[in-house]
Amino acid sequence: MKSSENIFTPHEKPRISPFLLVALIVILFTLTFGAACSNAWITEHGAGRGGYVLPPNLIKDGISFAGSKVPVERPGVHERIVEQLNYLLMDRRASVTEWFNRFVAYGPILTSALKKNNVPVDLVYLSILLSELDPNHKTRSGGIGWWALGPSREGSTKNIVPWVSTTEWDDRRDPEISTYIAAQFFQTLRKREPKYDWLLIVSTFLDGSDKISPILKKSPGFSYWDIITPPSSDLLIPRLIALKIILQNRNFYCVNITQDKPLTFDDLGRIKLSKDLPLSLVAKWTGAVPRNIWRLNTGVDIMAGVLPKTEKRSPDGYPLRTPLGTGAKVKKLLENEGCIAK
What we know:
By secondary structure, the chain is mainly α. It has two domains: 75-253, Lysozyme; 265-336, no CATH class. The protein has helices at 18-37, 56-61, 75-91, 93-116, 124-131, 175-192, 198-207, 209-218, 231-248, 250-253, 279-286, 290-296, 327-336, and strands at residues 41-44, 49-52, 63-65, 68-70, 151-152, 155-156, 265-271, 277-278, 306-307, 318-323. The strands form five sheets. Strands 1-2 form a two-stranded antiparallel sheet. Strands 3-4 form a two-stranded antiparallel ribbon. The chain is globular, with a radius of gyration of 26 Å. The N and C termini lie far apart (95 Å).
């Protein structure tokens, strides 16, 4: 073979191995990601072990949660928060990104309901951890929905703030109603223990006053960060704060959110219906798909697929949300179809 002879046929071109192509993409991503997030990561003892750290400005300026200063300058507090920070960013990064996308969509509904009930908006992070912002979320203890409402250490939460739960509808799955229920429960605990700050209120919500009150009686004058609380409180409160830090410093930790705007809709309020209203019919009226109508009305059971007619358990009817700009049309059609109860 002559040295100048081309080993490829005229129509054949050199091909890159798919494995090599994937390797190159991974290397490029790693280099880009590593360069962007290098300030958020430290390596310990030169042994290749390391983890994420707090943003320098946060250590300098401090951070508060629900109106309480978090003493991150204290080594023990710093360590607990950083431990949860690394758990979320290393073990649950994909989940955290998904939670934040859901938060962009539903966060304004949740935080607005907290504000209306005079509860600090920072408590919305508790909803993220309790339910992953999944309206159909169920806990092992029987909690359901955005705030995992159900049996609690205080007895049934329902005994404090009643809710409606049927085969077609559950208040705990509706973002606004469930947040109202949770907020009323928080306020009940706060009235019962006026000296507690919100961190201790959350502790009581998680573990019950029968566990938290005796601890505080034995340690009067000490804050949450000074006492030993039951496992739920001891773990979740530093995780709440870590979650807030990540969300407020997404660029520092290279956490990318793809959901770019919140859900927009017309709120028709509670509608008194004379018969069940299929969400598929609302979708047909508005030119949407049933799935998107349900996303606006998550209190509806997905298996039933209907907004229930008015009955004794909910004499004022159930709330209805429709795609932005369609509310007046839907209300008129409901009247024309004889769906509105007299």
